[in-house]
Write a structure and sequence with these properties.
Blueprint (H helix, E strand, L loop, with lengths): L15 E7 L2 E7 L11 H9 L6 E5 L5 H10 L2 E6 L2 H13 L5 E4 L10 E6 L7 H9 L5 E12 L4 H8 L4 E8 L2 E7 L2
Parallel strand pairs: 3-4, 3-6, 4-5, 6-7
Antiparallel strand pairs: 1-2, 7-9, 8-9
């Protein structure tokens, strides 16, 4: 099985265009095989985006996929957004989707924070749970090094995928809160205090 956090050159491309409304704003995205949630905006990402408020300064969308988080944030909050992913197909789609939605974003390849060289006010992610706990925790806890003081890590995680234990573990390093819960999805804010 091919995962969306790897590069599988042999995977047949079947680009499709989806149209979605997020907070009553219209967006269109190209999706493809080998990327997360290719059939449409997943409920967790939608819940995360609809929970965001007062996003300003520099933002990092880590594990950007085809780009809904970073593009939405750039368009809605008119702020500076970097978008990174390890999956080249995702990066290509993100570039096309930024143009399609007239979003000004900076997109580049990075395995977690490998090519990230600055600090952010916000890091926002729907993290790839299937990578396993070790890599997931690397993504979540290394965020501290890339957040400004009082910078915020926002993430979505399902109760069935360990939301309560992730929240408990994050609270050891961050000032954490649950922003909202919706159908088993937790939106977690972790402040780098």
């Amino acid at each position: 099985m091919s995962y969306y956090f790897t590069n599988d050159e042999s995977l047949k491309s079947e680009v499709k265009k989806i149209n979605v409304q997020i907070n009553n704003l219209p967006f269109s995205f190209y999706t493809d095989n080998g990327v997360f949630s290719k059939k449409g905006l997943d409920f967790g990402t939608r819940t995360l985006l609809e929970s965001l408020t007062n996003i300003k300064g520099d933002v990092l969308d880590i594990g950007c996929g085809y780009g809904p988080i970073g593009i939405y944030v750039a368009k809605t909050f008119k702020t500076s957004v970097d978008m990174v992913d390890i999956n080249k197909r995702s990066l290509d789609l993100s570039l096309k989707n930024a143009k399609l939605n007239n979003a000004i974003v900076n997109i580049f390849e990075s395995n977690l924070y490998e090519n990230v060289n600055k600090k952010y006010d916000f890091i926002i992610t729907n993290p790839p749970i299937r990578v396993g706990k070790k890599i997931l925790y690397q993504l979540l806890f290394e965020a501290k090094k890339y957040l400004n003081k009082d910078g915020e890590l926002w993430l979505v995680i399902n109760k069935d995928q360990g939301a309560k234990s992730v929240l408990k573990d994050l609270s050891l390093e961050y000032k954490t809160s649950i922003v909202t819960k919706n159908k088993g999805f937790y939106i977690i804010r972790a402040i780098n205090d």
